[in-house]
Design goal:
The protein has 9 helices and no strands. The longest helix is centred in the last third of the chain and has 43 residues. It has 247 residues and is mainly alpha-helical. The chain is 78% helix and 0% strand.
């Protein structure tokens, strides 16, 4: 497929909006109103996460050196627009259904800032941003299935089995990606940008902003998965105590 034949941003945004509406009004029509919005968001994410990770990995594999300051290629720009469309639609989802979820709203706004400045303002540095996107979305499929199963685990024995089966492997996978590979990649970004090597094409205020957003995002994600590990441990301890009491 030629790059020019790939739909532009409006088509991507329309597509994600339609996927969300399809999920909300058809796929999860029988689910409770409490869970339908989040389930619909996960459904939409299934069509973004893995494709975005694969496209980002493919796009950055041909980036010219120095990679962190290279001009964006047409395909890299397309991948950025693909993700901008997704995060914009998902942001509208949070504003509509979870206006008090300030953390996720702030996350989406910050992510959009990074993508938009990379795509439309400086038009350089997509290698760095898409590298982070690939790392962020490589766990997306597992996370979405885990989340959907978690929403139904108290209503469905199958969902509970899937949730319990995926929890450990998902936490481990997420921990490795966000706790090791992510920080290593961000460290390389920081050394390059803070060293001023990209100042000619990417203003320092932009690169510093990117670094702040990325460091905060990774820190929050590591804290999130750490809390999940703690919850899993406490649940196992609780079940063990219950068995002891029964015996």
């Amino acid at each position: 497929m030629e790059i020019s034949s790939i739909p532009p941003f409006p088509a991507f945004a329309s597509g994600f909006a339609l996927l969300y509406l399809l999920a909300y009004f058809a796929v999860f029509r029988s689910w409770s109103p409490k869970h339908r919005p989040e389930a619909s968001s996960c459904f939409m994410s299934l069509f973004h996460g893995t494709p975005a990770a694969l496209m980002a990995a493919s796009a950055t594999s041909t980036t010219a050196s120095p990679r962190f300051a290279a001009p964006n290629t047409p395909f890299e720009a397309t991948v950025l627009e693909f993700s901008i469309a997704y995060f914009l639609v998902d942001l509208l989802h949070y504003v509509a259904f979870f206006p008090g979820d300030y953390l996720f709203i702030a996350h989406h706004l910050a992510t959009l800032f990074v993508f938009v400045t990379c795509r439309y303002v400086v038009q350089h540095g997509a290698y760095a941003i898409l590298g982070l996107l690939a790392l962020a979305e490589v766990t997306s499929l597992c996370q979405n299935v885990w989340t959907l199963a978690g929403l139904r685990r108290f209503d469905s024995a199958l969902a509970k089995r899937v949730y319990d089966y995926l929890s450990g492997p998902f936490y481990a996978f997420y921990t490795i990606v966000r706790g090791f590979f992510g920080p290593v990649f961000v460290y390389k970004m920081g050394v390059f940008y803070m060293g001023g090597e990209a100042d000619r094409v990417i203003p320092m205020w932009v690169s510093v902003s990117w670094m702040v957003v990325v460091v905060v995002a990774i820190s929050v994600s590591v804290l999130w998965v750490f809390n999940l590990w703690v919850e899993m441990y406490l649940e196992k301890v609780g079940r063990a105590d219950e068995k002891k009491k029964e015996n």
